[in-house]
Design goal:
The structure is a single chain. Strand 1 and strand 2 form a beta hairpin. It is built from 5 helices and 8 strands; from the N terminus they run ββαβαβαβββααβ. The N and C termini lie close together (10 Å). It is of the alpha+beta class.
Length: 192
C-alpha cells in the first residue's frame, strides 16, 4: 500500500510517502508493482522539494554497508533480497536510510518482534541533501516499547504545526496523490 501527502510549510513542499511493501512471501509481481509505483511517484517529486518515505518496507537491509552510500553500516542483522531492493531504490533516488545513519542501541533498531524473531523492517528515507531534517529525526529517536503488538514505532518525525497551502494547492496535492493497495490479493501465501 502506498499513500502520498504533500504539505507546504516554511517555504518548502514536503512529499510524505507512507508505504507498506508486500511481505517476503508475496509474489514477485506484487513486489514489482509496489516498487515500480513508489519509484515512479518518487521520480515525479521536483528536485527542490523534500521527500520522506516512511513505513514498513518488509526487507532486511542488514548491518553491513557493502558499498551502499545510503547505508552507514549501523543497521541490524543480515540483508535479504527485499532489503537489497530498498537500498537500490534509495541509491537511485539519492535517499538516505535514516535508520542506518546513527549509532544507537540494538533495541532502538528492532521494529518487529515475533517470538524469538526480531527484525528491522520499518524505515525512514530522506534525500541526502536534507541533512538538517535528518538531524532533527535523530533527535526524535525513541526507545522501542512492546505493548502487546508485534511491531514498534522507533522513529517519530517532527510535528508540522503550520501549513501554508492555498485551497488550490491542497486540491492539486490530493488529486496528484494516489493510494494503491497491494494486500493479500497479490500474495501467493495468503498473508498480507
Amino acid at each position: 500500500m502506498l499513500m502520498k501527502v504533500v504539505i507546504a510549510a516554511e517555504g518548502r513542499r514536503y512529499h510524505l510517502f507512507s508505504a507498506y511493501a508486500p511481505q517476503t512471501g508475496c509474489s514477485e509481481r506484487a513486489k514489482d508493482e509496489f516498487w515500480s509505483l513508489l519509484d515512479e511517484k518518487t521520480a515525479e517529486v521536483p528536485l527542490q522539494d523534500v521527500i520522506i518515505v516512511a513505513g514498513d518496507l518488509n526487507g532486511h537491509v542488514g548491518a553491513a554497508k557493502d558499498g551502499y552510500g545510503c547505508h552507514d553500516g549501523l543497521g541490524f542483522g543480515s540483508r535479504n533480497a527485499d532489503g537489497e531492493r530498498i537500498l537500490e531504490y534509495a541509491e537511485f533516488h539519492d535517499l538516505t536510510n535514516v535508520n542506518a545513519r546513527f549509532r544507537k542501541p540494538k533495541s532502538y533498531l528492532i521494529s518487529f518482534y515475533n517470538g524469538n524473531s526480531k527484525a528491522q523492517i520499518d524505515f525512514v528515507l530522506v534525500r541526502n541533501r536534507d541533512q538538517g531534517l535528518e538531524r532533527s529525526i535523530k533527535d526524535q529517536v525513541v526507545p522501542s516499547e512492546r505493548k502487546g503488538s508485534s511491531w514498534t514505532s522507533c522513529i517519530r518525525l517532527p510535528t508540522v504545526t503550520t501549513v501554508d497551502e492555498t485551497g488550490q494547492n491542497a486540491t492539486n496535492a490530493i488529486r496528484d496523490s494516489q493510494c494503491c493497495a497491494f494486500r493479500s490479493r497479490h500474495c501467493e501465501t495468503g498473508t498480507a
